[in-house]
Amino acid sequence: MATTTKVIAVGNSAGVILPKEILARLNVQKGDLLYITEGSQGIRLLPFDTEFATQMEVAREVMRENRDVLQRLAE
To answer: I want to staple 28 with a disulfide (CB 3.0 to 4.6 A). Which of 4, 32, 48, 67 is the partner?
Structure first.
């Protein structure tokens, strides 16, 4: 499913308005938190999940601690 939305001014920042169909697919409503991830396919919006957030923080820590090893593996 592809849809478009416009980037709007929100104070000194910018934001987008998510259509109600997208909110329904994400199973979120106004005021809920979203988790934003970036990958090879682009940006993903996910409903905020405390367990997922904890896993991501652990992954970031491992990547920080093992930056050199991961860089060599990527070569």
So the answer is: 32
